Amino acid sequence: MHGYEIADSIQRISDDVLQVEEGSLYPALQRMLIKGWVKAKWGTTAGNRRARYYQLTASGRQQLETELSQFERVIGAITRVIQTA
Amino acid sequence: MDWLNEIRRRLWMLIRHRQFDVDLEDEMRLHLELKAQELVRAGLTPEDARYAALRRFGNTTLLKEKSHMVWGWEWLEHLVQDMNYGVRAMLRSPGITIVVLLSLGLGIGANTAIFNLIDAVMLRALPVKEPGRLLLFGDASDCCISDYFPNQVLYSYPFYREMQQKNQVFSQVAAVFSMMNRVHGSVEGRSETEPMNVQLVSGTYFPMLGVQAIAGRILTDEDDRMRDGNPVAVVSYSWWTRGLARNSSVLNKKLKIGSAVFSIVGVAPKEFFGTKVGESPDIWIPLSMQKEVLPNVDGYNDNFSECLYLMGRLKPGVNTAPAAANVNLLFQQILRGFPGAPLSQENLEKLAKTRVELTPMATGLSELRRQFSEPLKILMTVVGFVLMIACANIANLLLARSAARGRELAVRQALGAGRTRLIRQLLTESLVLAFAGGVLGVALAAGARRLLLRMVSGGPEAVPLDVSMNIRLLLFTLGVTLVTGALFGTIPALCATRLQLAGSLKEGRGPVTAGARNPLAKALVVSQIALSLVLLVGAGLFLHSLMNLMNVDTGFNREHVLRLQTDASSVGYKEDDYHLTRLYAQIEEAVSALPSVRAASYSLFTYNEGSWNNPVSVQGYVSADSHRDVHHNVVGTDYFATMGIPLLEGRGFGPQDTANSPRVAVIDETMAHTMFPKGSPIGRHYTRGGDRGIEVIGVVKDVKVNSLQEDPQPIDYYPYTQHSRYLNDFEVRYSGGLDAVAAAVRHRIHEVNPYLPISNVTTLDEQVERSIGNQRLVAQLSTFFGLLAVFLSCIGIYGVMSYVVTRRTNEIGIRMAQGARRSTMLWMVLREILILVTSGLVIGVPAALAGDRLVSNMLFGLKPIDPVTLVSATIVLLMVAAIAGYLPARRASRADPMVALRCE
Prior knowledge:
The complex is a heterodimer of chains A (85) and B (904). Chain A has helices at residues 3-13, 25-35, 58-84, and strands at 38-44, 50-56. With 85 residues, chain A is α+β, with helices and mostly antiparallel strands. Chain A has a single domain, classed as Orthogonal Bundle (Arc Repressor Mutant, subunit A), CATH 1.10.10.10. In chain A, strands 1-2 form a two-stranded antiparallel sheet. The mean pLDDT of chain A is 86. By secondary structure, chain B is of the alpha+beta class. In chain B, a hairpin with a 2-residue loop joins strand 18 and strand 19 (691-700). In chain B, strands 14, 15, 16, 17, 18, 19 and 20 form a 7-stranded mixed β-sheet that branches. A 6-stranded mixed beta barrel of chain B has the order 3-4-9-6-8-7. Classes of the chains: A alpha+beta (85), B alpha+beta (904). The interface between A and B is medium-sized, with 24 and 26 residues.
């Protein structure tokens, strides 16, 4: 996916709940590029425009899993706190 | 390896950062356009859609910067930017830049050059295995051959062997003859002899140092086992190159030295110069062969012929303290155990008190170091001061410039530049200056190197010292450069950025705020003056001291004496042989017959060539320590006439003093006064060792033996007719041109014996000059640097006063418009300069006095407080400062009131 598609899909999948400042996607993508979590390659869009397509790498997937389990632990903890309250 | 990949990606980005920015921009533009299209599809007008897309996206410029900075190259980009800016700023004011670079170049260059010498003479470790584990017995303060008991500096060969076998603390002990010997030998197959520097060493020398041969083998203990048994030699790399043109069959070559033919068994590594800094032997020969190199010394089996330095390599895990304990125990045992040891009550007491010090010898031995370490330290301080003065100058110029840039900086700060960012920029600019100065300094130092080496050598032959560029030197220069840059850059940068924004922005439109930065600039000038005074006074003292030394009465007449050396031992003459004496007499006669020669004579020594001394005894004379050494010299009949030493009493040597006539001696005044205090010494007798009944036939004036600073020494002279031994010095008193005489003398000598090698042709005057080489070095260089300091300070004064005058042009205009006279204006500016200089002097005088105390043992014939020097230095500084200040002052007084008022 290229940048716009990523932003668009976040917005769509979350049913417009997550509306971040779209541009802040780009510094974040750079950070992931440095870490090697995503790789980028240039291609053309359906409208025949030059665009950079990002793809998750193996180490990116691994990082995602780590982050997810971390996230789930936190969410779980929060949920338990709310339930007992 | 994730982090490696990460670095690779970051570097890739750095290389392609321009493309990176273009890509990012494309990407963002696409995003915006796609968003706008979507919004148009949703029903917005294209115009509204574009704005909405932009709103949703956020600040594109900021986001671009953020994305860029994520990669972490911001610092580098800023540095490059700042450096570019610094270079442009330098080019914009070429005048200031040239002054700054020159003072920096001179300052850094001087520091580099002096440090280069200090490094070569004092700091560099020997190129051997683990030099830190090497220890020297004693401190090498004595040299040559001695029979003093007990001697803890020089040792005999049998002592070395005993120590080598019995000690428990060294993995190996080695001995090296305490001086290098210059002999005349020949490469087999060549007819002519050539001078060679031979170092006698024990067979353990190379193995102990851990030095390997680059061709053949090193000397081993086996080569040193039997007296006269192994004529083998290791040659130095440079001699192999010089003497044998790096011939690959070097190991088949033979060398003829004395009566022996030596086989070359190996070549030492290129960097190995032995263990004495400032000397580089051509050939190393085992001590077992010493009789061939030194025909008149045979110390191989003599327990008390003390002529060696001993050194050892500590066993792993052993420290100096236990090693010293072991060595001292053995020292006492070995000396007491030698058969025939002079164990009188007095000597036993002396022995009990004697301790062998073990000195670290990682940096090697050095005569040069003893002579030059103090001068070099003084010079290092001096050049350090010069660099500080240069720094003060540059700081001042930068202050002036940054004040001129006040508005620029204020505008930038008003636009949101952080103060740290601005300071960083100003510091970077300073460092750019400093580095340019550093490069210039290294270039200057490279030029100064040869000059300095020549000054240290003090003669036509350069001391073999490696003063080429090396890493340590470059690091030193880099360090100095960085410190310099920080020193002169920091204060101006801090001051320049500490601005009252509103005021600065308005500046130039309202009344001049002159006072703000002046105190600092003035403080800098004051400290420059103070430092300059210290340097000038120092230079004055050293010059004065040098002049005192040059006016010292040497006792002999140093003018118009040619001195050369011949080597009779290398062409087969033997000591205690009639032929040797006759050779000397024939040469003296042949040379004396030359029309331009007034007198000529052989002698054992002339001046500053070491000495042969031991105690003499006169019946009825008891000296304070009963061990009054007398310097002996063996001379020809015309020696006193040749040297111009006046005869005070009695007669000189004559034809009546022959090998068979009674033993006679001429003594000097000091010996006459101290040993024959009552009545005339003429006709009285004394004893030297086994020589009993030496009759005094004459008294001559005292002469200096080894240095101009020494006190009068007792000396006696013997005629060579009664002491047939090798004499190497030949002196000729001549008139007319030196070169012609030298050629004629050479010719005459070769007429007597065509094979006799002649070397070291020089003059007596040069020998005297060479003995004060270190004093001359300090005096000349400190004078040069003192003047440089004054010059730099003048630039400082001129710069600051020009600046002050420019800033006050307006004020001056008003004053003059109101009727102030030109002379008043002149005085106003000059007064300011006088106050500055006087405050500098007030600080400088006590500092100079304190400094003089530190160098007082380098001074000759001066009290540490020398009023003449102090006063003249002060006057020089005042005058020069007045001249430097006069130009801006005159400009102030010449100002046209109308122009001045319209100014700004």
